[in-house]
Write a structure and sequence with these properties.
Strands 1, 2, 5, 7, 9 and 10 form a six-stranded mixed β-sheet that branches. A five-stranded mixed β-sheet has the order 32-29-37-34-35, with no helix packed on it. The protein contains five helices and 45 strands. The longest helix has 18 residues. The protein has 579 residues and is mainly β. Helix 1 packs across helix 3 and helix 2 runs parallel beside helix 3.
Amino acid sequence: MRTIAALSIAFLLCLQISAGTRAQTQTQKESGAITGTVKRDGKAASGITVIATPSISDASKAVEQMFNPSSSIKAATDSEGVYRLEGLAPGKYSVAPSAAPLISSAGNASIEVTVGDSTVEGIDFSLSLGGVITGRITDSEGRPVIGERISIKSLDEKTGPTDSAAAAAMMAMMGDRMYTTDDRGIYRIFGLKPGRYTVSSGKDSDIMNAVLSQHPKRVQTFYPGVTDESKATTVQVTPGSEAAGVDIQFSNTDKGFFVAGRVVDAEKGTPVPNAMVAYAKERTSLESGTIDTGASAASSGMPGGFTTTNDKGEYRFAAVAPGNYKLEATSIGALSDSVGGQFYADPLSFEVKSSNLDKLDIKVHSGASITGVVAIESTDPQDSLERFGQILLMATVIDSEKSFSSANCIVGIDGSFRLGGLKPGKATLQPMAVSARRPGLLRIERNGVEVKEFEIHPNEEVTGIRVIISSATCVIRGHVTIQGGALQPGAMIRATARANSRSDLNSADLVGIFQAEVSGNGSFVIDNLTPGSYEIEVFTVAPGTQTARTLSSKQSVTVTAERPAEVELILDLSKTADK
C-alpha cells in the first residue's frame, strides 16, 4: 500500500502547486557561496556548468522544485577549471557538474554542501568520459519503433529504501527524458558508470510518461528480446567505451494480456468511481517457494501500471505479461467522491497465464474516520492558518500485523478536517503544505489530552482530535569531527535529530525524526523544525546499504525561532555501532 498511497499524495501535491503560485520570493539575505575546481582526466576543465540545487527534505519540496527549477544556481568553470556559485541563501544544497557524457571518477555524482553566510571552498570534482549503450528497437516485423522509452538497470549498484514513499514517487516523476528512440528506432544512452546493466523497453519508467504516453502498451521486453528478466543478457560497460548493437525486437506473440475489473463497495456492491488502481509484480522467494507481498515488494519501486476507475468503477490494464501480481486501490484524497470520500481496499492477488482476465473486482471498505481541527500555536499574534496556504494532512495507521494504511485530505480554511478509509490500528498524523511556510507538528490532542499516537477501532468515528502546528522555521547547524580512522570509500555520514517529546518512536519513517547528510567538510543543516528539544547524533552509512556502522556521541539541543542552534559532534571510527 505504501507505493500507491505515495502516488495519491504526489497527485494531490501536484494539483496544489499547479493551482497556486509556483515561484516564491526570497526575503532572506543571500550571501553564501560555493567554490571549487572541475578536472577532466586530471586536467582543468573549462566551460563545465556546475549547479547548486536546494536539497530536498520532504515530498512537498520535491514537487515544488520540479515545478520551480529556477531555484537552482548555475556557474561555469573558467580556463583554470574554477567555478564559483554565489548568492546562495543559508541552507543545504546538492552540487553537481552538468556534463552529460562525463561521469565522476570518484563516484560522487553530487556533493551535499551546507552553506552559511560565507564561502564554502574545496568542493571539487574529477570527471572522465562515461560509457555508452546504443541499439535499435523494432517491432515484430522489423520496423523501427519511434519514441519508445528505454530502461536500464544497474546490476552492481545496490540502492536502499528511500526515506519516504512520497519522496520516491517524486523522484520517479522527474524521470530522465533522454532515454527515447529516434525516427530510426535508435537510442543512445551515454554518461554511464562502468558496470553491468540490463536493458529493456516496453514499460513506462516514470509516472509522467505513463500518464502522457500515446504509444500502444507493450510487454516489457529485455535485451536481446525476452520478457523474462532472469533470461536477459547482461551488457558490460567500460570507461569511455561504447556497447553497440544492444537491439530489442518486440515479439508478435508477446503482446501480453489485458486485466480488467471494477472497484466496488464491499458492503453495498456499488461501483466506486475515481479510485486509483495499481498492480505490481509479486516476488517469489526461490528459497521457500513463497510469494512475497510484504514490505520488500512494496518498496521495490514503481508499480507495473496504474490507472483510475471510470464513473462505473471500471479499470483496465493492457499488455500485462504472464506472472503473479497484486492489485491495490486507493482514493485520491479529498478528490474522491466514493464511500464517504475515502476507503481502504482488500488487496487482490492474481496470475496471468495465457489469457485475458476480467471481472477482477477489488472490494473496498469505508473503514474508520478521524475528524477534528488543525490549530496554530505561535507567539506571533499575526500568525494564522491562512499564512500556510493550503494544508494537507496525512494519517498513517499501522495495525498489529504491521500492515500499513493511510489517508490524506485538504484542511478546510477554518482548520477542520476529515480523514476516512482507515484500517484499525495505531494512527499518527502529519501536516504538509506547498508554500514558503512549512507547518511543523507540535502535538496532537484527543479530547484535550496530549497523545503521541492513538488507537482506532474497526469503523470507528474518532472525534475530538486537535492537531497543533506552528511554523517549522527552526534550524540546527552542526559540524562533525572525524577521529580514529578514515571513512570507507563511498561511505556517507548522516545526521539525525529526534524530538525529545517523541522519544518513543524508533523509525525515521515516522513523525518526530529528521535527518540530513553531512557535507564533505563535516557540516550539516537540519531544518524545518518546530521549537523544542532534540537529540542529535551522526553515523556512517556503508556504500550500497542503509545500515549504520559507527555511531557518534549524542548531544541534546534546544531550538528556537530566533536563531539557529549550533552543535559539535565527534565521530570516532575506531568504535563499532551500538547493538
